[in-house]
Hints:
CATH topology of the largest domain in chain A: Rossmann fold
Radius of gyration of chain B: 18 Å
Strand order of the largest sheet of chain B: 1-4
Number of strands of chain A: 19
Largest sheet of chain B: 2 strands, antiparallel
CATH architecture of the largest domain in chain A: 3-Layer(aba) Sandwich
Number of domains of chain A: 2
CATH architecture of the largest domain in chain B: 2-Layer Sandwich
Strand order of the largest sheet of chain A: 5-4-17-16-15-6-7-13-14
Shape of chain A: globular
Structural class of chain B: alpha+beta
CATH class of the largest domain in chain B: Alpha Beta
Strand content of chain A: 15-25%
Distance between the termini of chain A: 34 Å
Shape of chain B: elongated
Helix content of chain B: 25-40%
Largest interface: A-B, 34 and 26 residues
CATH topology of the largest domain in chain B: Alpha-Beta Plaits
Number of helices of chain A: 19
Oligomer: heterodimer
Largest sheet of chain A: 9 strands, mixed
Number of helices of chain B: 6
Amino acid sequence: xxxxxxxxxxxxxxxxxxxxxxxxxxxxxxxxxxxxxxxxxxxxxxxxxxxxxxxxxxxxxxxxxxxxxxxxxxxxxxxxxxxxxxxxxxxxxxxxxxxxxxxxxxxxxxxxxxxxxxxxxxxxxxxxxxxxxxxxxxxxxxxxxxxxxxxxxxxxxxxxxxxxxxxxxxxxxxxxxxxxxxxxxxxxxxxxxxxxxxxxxxxxxxxxxxxxxxxxxxxxxxxxxxxxxxxxxxxxxxxxxxxxxxxxxxxxxxxxxxxxxxxxxxxxxxxxxxxxxxxxxxxxxxxxxxxxxxxxxxxxxxxxxxxxxxxxxxxxxxxxxxxxxxxxxxxxxxxxxxxxxxxxxxxxxxxxxxxxxxxxxxxxxxxxxxxxxxxxxxxxxxxxxxxxxxxxxxxxxxxxxxxxxxxxxxxxxxxxxxxxxxxxxxxx
Amino acid sequence: xxxxxxxxxxxxxxxxxxxxxxxxxxxxxxxxxxxxxxxxxxxxxxxxxxxxxxxxxxxxxxxxxxxxxxxxxxxxxxxxxxxxxxxxxxxxxxxxxxxxxxxxxxxxxxxxxxxxxxxxxxxxxxxxx
Lengths: 428, 129
């Protein structure tokens, strides 16, 4: 089972809140409020501030395009899901763990397909971690111990702005007291010179052709085994040997796996082999660069209930589950095998290819979200909810599997997504 | 030459040279110089400028700054939100703000050419002039 800790952030540091801008869940945020609104946010990055200061365009409660009250919207949503033979419940990454558990119960009750964004991003890595197939660690371990950090297909300077400053490169840790210049080595392996690669400096940046990550892993494996590393793209052998030497000497190494690497690998086997070799000669861990603040929470909650992290369909009568690629959100929409959809805290019409997402606009669609989105504009029912971590509390799971408590900062008239989902479930 | 040095050191302003301001033949030079020196007006005593339009609030400078580490080892130095009033950098509303610049290692008689904040900025939002 994954490492599962519980940090009760609010007990002794009552003035600190948690940022839900990304899956780092930074828990050192101070805020200033006025008239029940956040006027200033301290320590959060620009991405976090944009989320915490609430949306500029809040979503309205609507049924069939007309303004409606919450009760009729919930009744209509319940009717849609009840009448559907194969509904889809999608999103979850921006919901609290409590809301996710209610959504899983709702999917079980309605015999729905249930999936989240991990289905087309970090899913394979998180799945391998929760199944104990990769050696992993916590972000705090990285802060205190990591001396070699590889950002592979990842650019946290843009995706998780505080990753390097809070955990992976710049902070002093218990076993890394001399600072980043002397105590840590940051390496970037990517298809382009990202902002993170520029921080790693040219001699620690390994630019490889698109889609050749597996081959570079093979070459690195050869170098770690004392063989001459060869690549079809003729990468400088000396540089690969030099990289292998740095990795061999690592006391506590981490590979931060970004979407670039996940999308490049057709299967995880090359990464398994590399990790196995690295742990023969050294000590390496995997850290998935999870995007949405509670995507890993959904994966772990679903895994605890069903043994799968995503891509599921429940049988409403037996409660049994079917799992596989054809139950993923992409395939379910592509094959038009769902006849209604409930989207929670996500905007699939913006994030999925139009050829796949277009079908969503053809079926009864329910959106639960604090903010207006493209998906909301095509929805039959829209129900505004409280903003997680700002207007409602709960718990969420950080990218490393550590559970973090979220506290409510300001009041709102909107119900939390957990309350809305509970009421829909009750209405069904 | 002395005036130019004072100008760059922000000990003098362009307007402090009477002939530059009043004589017609220097008008073009005065305008060009004002344009060049203009951005320097916002800099701190150490010559530090934070381009807020470029900053993403990652906090790399906050944590990497040797003065922040020395003055706040358990806060900024450990990657957490600053817990001391003596830090030079602090992130507010997603953008880094410079303060206590007299603490900067580039300041004072024993100044040194520290570039920790510039080197660690992914968006090149910090510069010294």
